[in-house]
């Protein structure tokens, strides 16, 4: 049997109540008692009973997080950033993946709620179909959305300014000489997919350049390869392609180069995220950098302020992205190269 609070109290020469107060920090004890209890804890190697503490405080010291998939380097990066932020307060992270399915997502949320997590951070996989499960969870525990959000609000959100980011990419390739442009992205089932597509279309329309039909599939490397093949098969290439994420962009560059197309001399390519494969792409990928660490810090900060079923209007925090110019696009004087 492990060391108990009774053993600590006996070693410190104090009552169990005094030892408990000294360890919880909720009620003051004299410096002498606090020192004696701390010394006894160190000597005995006492570890507080996490279950008993959770029952007493009605908290578990855990936060649940649901992302569409951990195979996408962006979600891996944001999960790690959130976990680092939570460690600062001694909070543990329980991670689930929805596998891009609203039905699986709803089950994952129920699983985390059954484990009595103190709050939830979620990147909803579907702007419409995810609404019922996300709103139900937000009524039961504090909840913050990160990166993606559901239609109609209903819960706080922190993410990058998607439209500003894709506008940076479009304006960059146009400034580099592109007169015909295309967009390779995901089908518009998530907020980020919709905003990046619409933002690109508006930026291209403002510039007055020719816009070829968008190539819409998934946020994956495989779709990027397929999108590149479709461009090659179409017989006419755009001067530039703006991609909805780096995975698509890397696959697209690979496919174009295998087809004998020079990047960026024949076709410029810009991605979105600046995680994972961006710097390892051949040539290194120009992209829009998401401020992942800042997004994670804001999400955790907001989670500490939110209350379950809070009737106040949901907060929306859009953080500015940054264009990172490498070698898949043509640099211009105003661009920031890296």
UniProtKB/TrEMBL annotation:
Organism annotation: Nonomuraea wenchangensis
Keywords, alphabetical: DNA-binding, Transcription, Transcription regulation
Keyword hit for Phosphoprotein: no
Domain of life of the native organism: Bacteria
Identification of the protein by name: Transcriptional regulator, LacI family
GO molecular function: DNA-binding transcription factor activity; transcription cis-regulatory region binding
Keyword set includes DNA-binding: yes
InterPro entries assigned: HTH_LacI, LacI/GalR-like_sensor, Lambda_DNA-bd_dom_sf, Peripla_BP_I
Domain HTH lacI-type: 3-57
């Amino acid at each position: 049997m492990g060391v108990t609070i009774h053993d600590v109290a006996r070693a410190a020469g104090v009552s169990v109540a005094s030892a408990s107060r000294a360890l919880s920090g909720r009620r003051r004890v004299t410096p002498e008692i606090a020192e004696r209890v701390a010394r006894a804890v160190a000597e005995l190697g006492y570890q507080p009973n996490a279950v008993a503490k959770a029952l007493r405080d009605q908290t578990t010291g855990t936060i649940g997080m649901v992302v569409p998939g951990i195979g996408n380097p962006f979600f891996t990066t944001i999960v790690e950033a959130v976990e680092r932020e939570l460690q600062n307060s001694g909070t543990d992270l329980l991670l689930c993946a929805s596998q891009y399915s609203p039905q699986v997502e709803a089950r994952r949320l129920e699983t985390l709620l059954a484990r009595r997590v103190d709050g939830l951070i979620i990147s909803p996989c579907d702007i419409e179909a995810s609404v019922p499960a996300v709103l139900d969870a937000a009524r039961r525990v504090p909840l913050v959305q990160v990166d993606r959000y559901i239609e109609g609000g209903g819960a706080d959100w922190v993410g990058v300014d998607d439209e500003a980011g894709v506008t940076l990419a479009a304006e960059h390739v146009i400034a580099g000489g592109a007169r015909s442009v295309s967009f390779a992205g995901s089908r518009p089932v998530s907020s980020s997919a919709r905003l990046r597509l619409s933002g690109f279309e508006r930026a291209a329309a403002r510039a007055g350049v020719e816009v070829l039909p968008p190539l819409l599939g998934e946020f994956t490397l495989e779709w990027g390869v397929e999108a590149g093949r479709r461009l090659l098969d179409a017989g006419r290439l755009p001067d530039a392609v703006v991609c909805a994420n780096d995975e698509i962009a890397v696959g697209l560059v690979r496919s174009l180069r295998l087809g004998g197309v020079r990047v960026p001399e024949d076709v410029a390519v810009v991605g979105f995220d600046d995680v994972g494969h961006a710097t390892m792409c051949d040539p290194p990928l120009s992209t829009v950098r998401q401020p992942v660490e800042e997004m994670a810090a804001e999400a955790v900060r907001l989670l500490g302020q939110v209350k379950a079923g809070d009737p106040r209007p949901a907060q929306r925090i859009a953080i500015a992205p940054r264009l990172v110019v490498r070698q898949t696009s043509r640099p211009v004087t105003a661009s920031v190269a890296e």
